[in-house]
Design a protein that fits this description.
mainly alpha; PNGase; single chain; two-stranded antiparallel sheet
């Protein structure tokens, strides 16, 4: 589990997002398109990528919640996250089942009868 928790090394308290580091440990420029080939050198896609990759710690949801500033801040992140994305990480919709988000979001993401 220790190794899995190393994701915290790239959580930037300034931007409240994942941010790359240089070899010397300093933060990379948050506007650097080299963060991923998926950004396509497009500012909107880069922003979506940063938000999408932010949820890549399903093994430590409480750690993400704490990092973002608590339940309300995390719910606000999700409220802003889903409308902006076009291809979320496969696990991202599972976060709408967290306490405090289920009632508001389940009707938006449940596409079947029931």
């Amino acid at each position: 589990m220790e190794r899995a928790m190393r994701y915290k090394n790239v959580l930037d308290p300034e931007t409240k997002l994942v941010r790359g580091r240089n070899a010397d440990g300093t933060w990379r420029d948050p506007k650097d398109f080299a963060i991923s080939g998926w950004t396509g050198h497009d500012e909107k896609q880069r922003n979506i990528y940063y938000h999408n990759i932010m949820l890549f710690a399903p093994h430590d949801v409480q750690g993400l919640v704490n990092f973002m500033g608590g339940d309300d801040a995390f719910i606000e992140f999700l409220d802003n996250f889903f409308p902006m994305g076009d291809e979320w990480s496969m696990h991202a919709p599972l976060f709408v089942q967290l306490p405090g988000t289920t009632v508001e979001n389940s009707k938006d993401y449940q596409r079947t009868a029931g």
